Amino acid sequence: MKQKKFFLIFTFYTFLFLFYPGDSFYFHIFSYHREIFAKKEGKKIFYKVSPVPFRKTEVFPFLTAQGVYVLDLPSFTPILEKNAKERFLPASTAKIITALVAYDVYKPQAVIEVKKVVPDGQTMGLVLGEKITVENLLYGILVHSANDAAYVLAENFGYQKFLDLMNKKAKDLKMENSHFVDPAGLSEEKNQYTTPFDLALAARAILKNPYLSKMVSLKEIVVSDIDFLYFHRLVNVNRLLGEVPGVGGVKTGYTEEAGQNLVSFYKKNNHQFIIVVLKSEDRFLDTKNIIDWLSWNVDYFSL
Predict the structure, then answer these.
(1) Closest C-alpha among 237, 285, 286, 242 to residue 91
(2) For 219-245, what is each residue's pLDDT tens digit?
(3) What CATH number should be reported for the domain whose range is 91-301?
């Protein structure tokens, strides 16, 4: 009788953990974001939740960032968060969406003529009249965070149409608290915003694209126009690439008002993480502190 009672109690709590959508972290690890990533086959819904990460202690790293979201990528399970759905200025992290839209609307080897040069902020040094492939412009925005490349891609397609597609892409990715008003992320207007959680969704999307994901992990590359008249040395702003083993992208961002932003992809021991820090005083140190914290405070179990 006692064994039967124990079995019933055990079964009850097992199902409670699996399906209860409450706010406790230990409930989150089973049910968080299922509605976003559920795979549907007919009337059946399938979720991938194993293995599941958990925190071994409730000791947290020291961080200056005002917005933080750290998750296990395969299960999209949150591990650490701070103001995860609060709105922040994206700065150049907006270029993740710019790249995804450009990939949708252009062929990589399509040639674009530079008809307008935007000299603001970080640029790859495009020259008026230069003819360059979409692929090399994508290297420009994802490796070098080049504002001029972002504007050329948008303006060649139709500036407002491109912005509309950026916002549609955000909605398609379930980025419900994001809105973009320029392809480079330079604008500091109130109607340009994103959240740590939404940028994790964007990072997930670009990492699922083999063509774009290889670009975000490059430390340096030299590209040219189609006539080999102009060569552009592109150096990744993310200094953690090559400095911290396991870091493979994704995107930096900075304006005076936005502060220091960084979206990172990190791999260790066959586990994969997305780390988002927004409005940081030292984005690289914050990310290093999170990576160190992951090494001793996060473990996994299988269901």
Answers:
(1) 237
(2) 999 999 999 999 999 999 999 999 999
(3) 3.40.710.10
